[in-house]
TrEMBL record:
<dbReference type="GO" id="GO:0046872">
    <property type="term" value="F:metal ion binding"/>
</dbReference>
<feature type="domain" description="4Fe-4S ferredoxin-type">
    <location>
        <begin position="2"/>
        <end position="30"/>
    </location>
</feature>
<keyword id="KW-0249">Electron transport</keyword>
<feature type="domain" description="4Fe-4S ferredoxin-type">
    <location>
        <begin position="85"/>
        <end position="114"/>
    </location>
</feature>
<dbReference type="InterPro" id="IPR017900">
    <property type="entry name" value="4Fe4S_Fe_S_CS"/>
</dbReference>
<dbReference type="InterPro" id="IPR050954">
    <property type="entry name" value="ET_IronSulfur_Cluster-Binding"/>
</dbReference>
<keyword id="KW-0677">Repeat</keyword>
<keyword id="KW-0004">4Fe-4S</keyword>
<keyword id="KW-0813">Transport</keyword>
<protein>
    <submittedName>
        <fullName>Nitrate reductase</fullName>
    </submittedName>
</protein>
<keyword id="KW-0479">Metal-binding</keyword>
<dbReference type="InterPro" id="IPR017896">
    <property type="entry name" value="4Fe4S_Fe-S-bd"/>
</dbReference>
<keyword id="KW-0408">Iron</keyword>
<dbReference type="GO" id="GO:0051539">
    <property type="term" value="F:4 iron, 4 sulfur cluster binding"/>
</dbReference>
<keyword id="KW-0411">Iron-sulfur</keyword>
<dbReference type="Pfam" id="PF13247">
    <property type="entry name" value="Fer4_11"/>
</dbReference>
Length: 150
């Protein structure tokens, strides 16, 4: 199984990962140069927080071994692939109860800002080949994909 790993000590808060995520999931075609960072349709699946001491905390979906989000999902919208380890979200099954948001131990999942009817969640960029855009665009190598045992 693959998992996104984080070394927060290497993160300089540049937010290249956030912009890359927004670009990868934008609805309209375009380049990173015309990406509207304020458009809620382009919400990132990850975010970077200041630790208040000059450092940063990258907040990413861990695709946990025993994902609380999946276990708390009453509608079956969230599931974990036993082969890839990726936790997937099916918007058509989602009941918008947000139990997954409340139960994520890392505070990653969130309701979408625009409609508050679906969950914004990392999909590991599976439609773009499975190498997350955030990882590809981290200049400090603070995030990376690692093969782990289940």
């Amino acid at each position: 199984m693959k998992r996104i790993m984080i070394d927060y000590m290497k993160c300089d808060g540049c937010k290249n990962c956030t912009a890359a995520c927004m670009q990868a999931h934008r609805e309209e075609q375009g380049t990173i140069y015309d990406l509207d960072l304020t458009d809620p349709k382009n919400e990132s699946r990850n975010h970077i927080l200041s630790d208040g001491r000059g450092g940063y905390r990258p907040i990413f979906c861990r695709h946990c071994d025993l994902p609380e989000c999946v276990m708390s999902c009453m509608s079956g919208a969230l599931s974990k692939d036993s082969v890839t380890g990726v936790v997937s979200y099916d918007v058509n099954k989602c009941g918008s109860c947000f139990m997954c948001v409340m139960n994520c131990p890392y505070g990653v999942l969130k309701p979408d800002t625009l409609t508050r009817t679906k969950v914004i969640k990392c999909d590991f960029c599976m439609e773009k080949g499975g190498e997350p855009s955030c990882v590809k665009n981290c200049p400090k190598k603070a995030i990376w994909v690692e093969e782990v045992q289940a």
